[in-house]
Amino acid sequence: MKNLVIIDLGSNSIRMAINKRQPNGSFKEIKRLRNPVRLSHDMGPKKILQPTVMRHAIQALTQFHTIYSKFDDYKVIGIATAAVRQAQNQKTFLKMVYDAIGIHVKVLSGTEEAECDYLGVKDQIKAPRYVIMDVGGGSIEIIYVDHQSHHLISLPVGAVSITERYHLIDNVSGANLFGAQEYFHNWLKRVSWLRFVHHVPLILLGGAHRALARMNLERDSQPASALGGYSLSRKQIFKEYRHLLAMNLSQRKHVDGLETNRASVIIGGLLPLTMMMNHLDIDDVHFSNCGVRQGLIKHAIND
């Protein structure tokens, strides 16, 4: 195998990364594509993937297939996360994917997704104790690392589900924001081992967090490639969040560094971060450009 193709069917977008094997056995990413198909859109309490959304996903995957099939000696790993994991019509969708591009998609459990996050990030972090938080469209993975041991959990809530449940898309009312905060607070209370974790570095993964970093990098005239290892202070983050809350959807779509299709879920996507910072009682956060896909690559190397 010369090339490893990873297709990630996320809740808020579908991504493809093509990685070329290096002489030392490692992999180097040579191409990355993202399609903003929001699989978790309008799933409702019955957790049904919508027909239009599934069709758009198949169109995106067909386009990806056209690109990666031009490469020599490749292997494809397809994974799906929260939206497909929670979907009642999961089997129907996975069959559509197989019929369209001939791959069997592995639906990661929440625990497997969190474990991949940990594997993808751990070699970058030098601190003996830290917390990783990955906010996706339909789930949030939290990992607490304490020297050689780690605890992890996947919560079945995310940027899209919080946004849709509490109507945080356009103008945000105080009542809806408070309701969303109380909702996520109740989820955090269920994580027993997190109650005693304070004053440790917080490492951020996920689309909403990357968007927050890009907005600030753009403002500071820094390239997006500087995201890995980038840090923001509590003051900067809360100022940015208040700024976004004061806007309507149309205004958010014109914020530099914020992708247009993410503007509708950015309030719900950053809310867990503000609450986690309060819980940990920390003054800054750190961003990583690694995560699930890098964890999968490590699995592939070991295999």
Automatic annotation (TrEMBL):
Q: Which residues form the Ppx/GppA phosphatase N-terminal domain?
A: 23-298
One record GO biological process: regulation of transcription by RNA polymerase II
Q: Pfam families this protein is in? A: Ppx-GppA (PF02541)
Q: Which InterPro entries match?
A: ATPase_NBD, GppA/Ppx_hydrolase, Ppx_GppA_N
- Similarity remark: Belongs to the GppA/Ppx family.
Identification of the protein by name: Exopolyphosphatase
